[in-house]
Design a protein that fits this description.
2 copies of one chain form a homodimer. Chain A has 396 residues and is of the alpha+beta class. Chain A is 34% helix and 22% strand. The two termini of chain A are 16 Å apart. The interface between A and B is medium-sized, with 32 and 32 residues. Chains A, B: Its EC number is 4.1.1.33.
Chain lengths: 396, 396
């Protein structure tokens, strides 16, 4: 038996992927750029085992047995095996490609939270497959075929997914454009919004936007192209204030396109919008105080949750502001409400307190995650990390 | 003393006015099209009196004395007097132009409702001024200078406001494009949403959209131009289904531009979005039943209230659906909750009942107005209608 375990990170786009030019190969209509998040708070973990003794392929996801026949998983598996068969590697036996495979995968964060768990999941699966079959080189093109944004979780720091020009998708890959410490100590605060609304799955939403929104066409052909160039400049020049403005503008535009879709796919709720207002007001204070480098920014994926990027120097202040403006229900302990580093009980400044109405409804957020920017997938060599038993190949 | 009283209607745009090319003259970036609403449920009423005995200009609005020095009111007044002085009319004495003026104005609907009360108000003021000074011909160019969309309230039925090309605004006027009974018995159902959020005033919102949204540029130059042509065709061909789709698409696009504005000016709330979902689901049922002519549509102005256009044949059904999906608070009588014609207590069909989750939060709407399409401003000749005392020129 050959067995391998990997973890892979979640990533959050600052220039959004919204719309495919090829549904089957998962090729996007525009370049996108993301921060890879630390795996301390959130990651997917996958163990892959292959053995001549396995009688069939098996797959367990978050403790439940599922079918491996999912076409997206099969695409990844096929592509990895194709690449493996092309390489004659040390100790790699072509026979292994015919062995059955066991896959066991789990996230250390709730999938129901509406976070992009499939990106971490597919990046993790492809990393583990790549390792078990001895495939080297870029894996982003392969994980892209599992879930588009998964290609960005193959690398750490700031990552750019190039849309590519080829019809076969061979040039639609991801690449690190800046390391995790490019802006040292950047914090990521994710506000998990308590949403009632049923949401349109992102695959369907994208398809509908491409088919019905004329603003979508303009975004893809003009505005997002300009914005990618501008944010690359902001990143290269380490201009955090400009980076924040572009990040918010692109989130705004993506959700504008969703609103322009027919019928609209609206992901942001009243609570999401209340968070954006708070961010703009916070930044106004920072700018008035000539602290543009302490600005913060938000971005929203295809869901109501806000993801805030925050300079380390103001992380505690922002955490306090968020928790004060959006208090937990009285029944919820603060320890349960905040996952990751808690702020100290320092008081908010008068100007920040003034941003808050005073009569705040509790429970608008389910919880808040405080995390950091991080690196790409990891191979865990310690056998205790495997999710599958090394003798039986079944879940521990 | 010369005294005149007019009423003027509210109008609701189906192709939206959002963005000015000239702030002072109030010239829009694109043509817009609206339905003028019946004055039975909602109108502004204005009495204008001029007299050689008045010692100063006076103005009362909704029972409170205000200054007539508001530049927008002064623009209307100046323009009316300029036009009057150019005409030598029967019985019109140039001396009258120097008399002081008393203006008393009131709406028969709450201004706080977030309905476009200024459109009805300025259309009414300009109609009354035109009448008192004997100005004939088109008054839409003048009322436009009070409040842009007021120019559309000068006419009945379906009205188009041409953006015009001239820098002096002389060709930016409104015109009826179809009479009130073009689609006979069209009903208008306005859902007044209980909104917590502070809203950006529309003048500021427009200015910000023009300055910051790249989608705005595309809307104005491309998509709204196409949509105006398409809706004109739908109106000429009496294609109600197409009219509905274009109306919703333009409302969607305007609010997409608002979302794309930096910072965003978001007017629709979760309740607004819940109404749009209900409309799309209702239309799906009608289309499945091959009743495309019974489709309904929504439009949203710079606020959370939904305005629905509904064929008379299904008005009762839609009223029942709205009131069932958005029930009043138990303390609110149905008579108070519905202004205008009430639906009978007929039961909703099973397929419509199925659209509603079952556990509906009460009080998401403040109330519902049920009204019709109507005609333009009216001159009320009966002295009992005057809001000013005919002897003193003071409010009755």
């Amino acid at each position: 038996m050959k067995i391998v375990t990997c973890t892979a990170p979640v990533n959050i786009a600052v220039i959004k992927y919204w719309g495919k030019r090829d549904e089957k190969l998962i090729l996007p209509l525009n370049d996108s750029i993301s921060f890879t998040l630390s795996q301390d708070e959130m990651c997917a973990k996958t163990t892959v085992a292959i053995s001549p003794n396995f009688s069939e392929d098996k797959f367990w996801l978050n403790g439940k047995e599922e079918s491996l026949e999912n076409p997206r998983i099969q695409n990844c598996l096929k592509e990895i095996r194709r690449r493996a068969s092309k390489r004659k590697m040390n100790g790699f036996d072509d026979e292994m490609l015919n062995w059955h495979i066991h896959v066991c995968s789990a996230n250390n964060f709730p999938t129901a939270a509406g976070l992009a768990s499939s990106a971490a999941g597919y990046a993790c699966l492809v990393s583990a497959l790549g390792s078990v079959y001895g495939v080297e080189g870029d894996l982003s093109v392969i994980s892209r075929q599992g879930s588009g944004s998964a290609c960005r979780s193959i690398y750490g720091g700031l990552v750019r997914w190039y849309k590519g020009e080829q019809t076969d998708g061979s040039d639609s890959f991801a690449k690190t454009i800046a390391p995790p410490d490019h802006w040292p100590n950047t914090r990521v605060i994710i506000c998990i919004v308590n949403a009632g609304r049923k949401k349109t799955p992102s695959t369907e939403g994208m398809r509908r936007s491409v088919a019905t929104s004329s603003l979508m066409e303009y975004r893809v052909q003009t505005s997002v192209v300009n914005r990618v160039n501008k944010i690359m400049q902001a990143i290269n020049e380490k201009d955090w204030s400009m980076f924040c403005d572009i990040t918010m503008a692109d989130s705004n535009e993506m959700h504008a396109v969703c609103q322009d879709t027919f019928p609209p796919c609206v992901y942001m709720t009243d609570t999401s919008q209340a968070i954006t207002s708070l961010v703009y007001q916070y930044n106004e204070i920072k700018m008035a105080n000539k602290e543009d480098h302490h600005k913060i920014c938000y971005t929203f994926d295809a869901g109501p949750n806000a993801c805030l990027f925050v300079p380390g120097e103001v992380a505690e202040e922002v955490m306090n502001l968020v928790v004060t403006a959006f208090p937990p229900k009285p029944t919820q302990a603060l320890d349960e409400y905040i996952r990751g580093e808690k702020p100290s009980n320092s008081e908010l400044s008068k100007e920040l307190t003034d941003l808050i109405d005073g009569d705040q409804e509790a429970g608008r957020l389910n919880y808040v995650i405080h995390t950091k920017v991080g690196d790409g997938p990891r191979l865990l060599s310690e056998p205790s990390n495997h999710l599958l038993n090394m003798d039986t190949g079944l879940p521990k």
